Amino acid sequence: MKQQKELMEQPCSECGGALEKKSITQEFEREGIKIKLSGIKAWVCSGCGETYFQPGGADKVAKAANCLFELALRKTT
What we know:
By secondary structure, the chain is of the alpha+beta class. The chain has a single domain (2-76), classed as Ubiquitin-like (UB roll). It is built from two helices and three strands, in the order αβββα. It has a three-stranded antiparallel beta sheet with strand order 1-2-3, with helices on both faces. Strand 2 and strand 3 (51-52) form a beta hairpin. The mean pLDDT is 89.
């Protein structure tokens, strides 16, 4: 929890803007297959839009996306 609070208090490393906690959507494409993950909690810079995740958050998003791609590829084979 301490790491989350520290992250929110830091300015954006790209432009120095303030970070706001938001629920975002990210789209991914691999081998012609597109997926969309919604409801991802992240901090987004109010100035430039740079996205930050809590420690380990980006790995969880990548794992979820990889699982969905595996399921989609099984259906097409």
